[in-house]
Amino acid sequence: MTSSLRAGVRRGGIELRHFLRNGKELFGHLTNVVVALLVAAFLGDDVPGTRIPMTHLVLAGFAAYLLFQVGLINLPQTLVTEREEGALLRLRATPGGIPAYLVAKCLLVVVVAVGTLALLLAAGALLVDGPLPRGPGDWLTLLWVTTLGLLAVVPLGAAIGAVLPNPREALALIMLPTMGLLLTSGVVFPITMLPVAVQQVAAVFPLKWMAQGLRSALLPDSARTAEVAGSWELPLVALVLTAWAVFGFLLAVPLLRRAARRESGSRLSARRRRAERSGASAA
């Protein structure tokens, strides 16, 4: 296990350097931050029942969604693409390959997600008077909610990536449910504005609790009146995110191992032939 961890950290460092040299990927994450700032900048009202600017609530919500997006959209797409390129096939011949691969992806996603979050909060504070933690307790809350939130979504994203069919279908299959959660988890407007049944469905998934935890770190206590329970429910936030983290890890490793076992040279060659035929047909 220790050797797999060391190998995963080394691999994660290499992948991070490659990511930082990839202008297209960096631009994609920057675009997400710009979109969040533009949405927040055009909101002038206060949160109903409070004197908290809606801009602050939306920026806190988007902070959670960007973490969620990196784990649940970007990571599965990356895994599916690398599987199509034969990465999982090579892992079969590597001792401890799957755990090391998962550690590397977790490391990459954590660095990218934390960097995106820091950029959003700093740019929001400078450009649209966005919220920041007000004291050591709020900074600590921001830290543990971000950590638990990533632990909740990264393994789940890896599990999803292990079962998605191909890169072309992956985005379509992931985007619809994640956009649904974006609209129903209290990210872009107060969750209390939604029907009770919708609130209950959203409460099953981690995004709602990630957004609630980050609001507690970034918004003043008076904003609690816009929460379903009238409080931040931080112990429940920690419990739900921990449960998702455990579930995700229990699911991700066996699914990745299964995907690796099913890989073969003939399968890889067949996929490449289909892709070439599809490209030729499209041309």
Strand content: under 5%
Major sheet characteristics: none
Using only C-alpha atoms, the radius of gyration works out to: 20 Å
Molecular shape: globular
Distance between the termini: 48 Å
What's the mean pLDDT score? Answer: 83
Low-pLDDT runs of 5+ residues are 279-283
Number of strands: 0
Please estimate the helix content.
over 70%
* Structural class by helix and strand composition: mainly alpha
So how many helices? Answer: 11
* Element string (H = helix, E = strand): HHHHHHHHHHH
Q: Any overview of this molecule?
A:
The chain has helices spanning 2-20, 23-41, 54-84, 87-91, 97-127, 136-163, 167-184, 196-202, 206-218, 234-262, 265-282. With 283 residues, it is mostly helical.
Describe the structure using short key phrases.
mainly alpha; 11 helices; 283 residues
What is the topology?
Elements: H1 2-20, H2 23-41, H3 54-84, H4 87-91, H5 97-127, H6 136-163, H7 167-184, H8 196-202, H9 206-218, H10 234-262, H11 265-282
What's a concise summary of this model?
This protein has 283 residues and is mostly helical.
